[in-house]
User: What shape does this take?
Amino acid sequence: MNRETALRWSGYLAMAIVFAVACAFLSNWQFSRNAERDAELRLVAQNYSREPVPVGELIPDGSSLAPDDEWRPVEMTGQYLTDQTLLARNRPHGGTSAFEVLVPFRTDSGRVVVVDRGWVPPGDDQPEPDSIPAPPTGEVTVVGRLQPGERPAREGRSAPEGQVPTIDLQLIGTETGQSSALLDSAYVLMTTESPAPADRPNPLEDPSADPGPYLSYAIQWILFAVMGFAFIGYIIRTEIRHRREDEEAGPDAPPRRPTQRRRDRDMEAEDELLDAR
Assistant: This one.
């Protein structure tokens, strides 16, 4: 093996190694995503069907929602602050860009908790909903599940008056004037309210149990890395075979012609038949 061949093969191997490193990075990222999704599913399975407890038991005054308490059912008694209702826009429900109805709820202890009562579709003739079912008045008992607040909207993403781009609890506190009393680490996805109103927004869907494609993607990236080395090995073996064939043919053999595709050979055969006529 001469120096030129050694350098060329070293280049092939270096390319395969770089490709394998990139595949390993992407595979590890997909494994991480799969682990995160698995943890989310375990948390839902652990908390979703538990018995409701008072919200103050899980989030005492001055504290925040613990990550392990997401999806925990809670119970609150108090009054809806109906005049401070907001709509979270562009929510994917019912195959539309729907709205989730957010109503601050003042508990008997004086704490204000945002309640997501469900979703309503856009209107028939305008983007805004045709109507928003009102919550019950007077003293109400709400049962729902805890969710952490969402991140603030990206810069430049805004919403019309009476709407918010995300369930950013600090923004909601500012919009409703309840910043000092508002629980700003969690809100409640309502499941029931008593007394039950005659009409209510569409209930929110249960969380998906789909583990996602992350594990299969991770395995695919590993296979791609192996295929990269296999391809380089095939190229090197082909060069070795051609060199041996040339050595066996001797120095007087005609130079090797590039391998032709079958279609090219067929076209040449047709041309020869036409020329022979």
Remarks:
- The chain is about 40% helix and 20% strand.
- The beta strands are 53-54, 73-80, 86-93, 96-107, 112-120, 140-148, 163-164, 186-194.
- The chain has two domains: 3-33+213-270, 50-194.
- The first strand starts at residue 53 and ends at 54.
